[in-house]
Amino acid sequence: MDNLTLVTLAKLLGAFFYYSPNSKIVKPLIDGLLHIDELASWTDDKLIYEQCQILADQIQNPDLDFQFSLLFEGQGNMPVPPWGSVYLDQEKLLMGESQERYRQFLQQNGLTLNSGMNEPEDQFGLMLMAFALLAEKKQLSVAKQLITDHLSIWSSIYLNRLKHNEISFFYQALAVIAEQYLQILLNNIERDLL
């Protein structure tokens, strides 16, 4: 998969992991998500196609915004928190030491994230979008470091839990696609193709 495709997919997936499916930002991207299987060469094309079918079936679900709220905004008990510090820090708290290290990493590399939302920067979707921004700015070594030193050390746990959540088939499918994407991205980084 070429770098432009990797960046495009990071933006697309990042947006759906960060914004509600009915938000003004994400609505124009729905068609791209539903056809993400056609945007790249996937390791397991059939699996990605099947996930796209689930996404297409679920995108009109009237409960999708509520599901997003439960999984990403913390309505009640949050079953699968999307922030790295919850998985990395000893106390399993938001805004822990790993979040602070990530914030310093971003600042040292001249990246300030201002999404208009008041939440930690180590949110899964926001991290994918930060990677895309760094890659677009040709800061490839920093983009690689973001993935290897900050995102990949906890994302497999998060995505595995999201794949098995009992709240949303839509986000189960999205987690499967993100897992496949990150594997391709990490393979490209390992082979120094990024």
UniProtKB/TrEMBL annotation:
Gene3D superfamilies, alphabetized: TorD-like (1.10.3480.10)
Keyword entries, A-Z: Chaperone
InterPro entries assigned: DmsD-type, DMSO/NO3_reduct_chaperone, TorD-like_sf, TorD/DmsD_chaperones
The protein's name in its UniProt record: Molecular chaperone
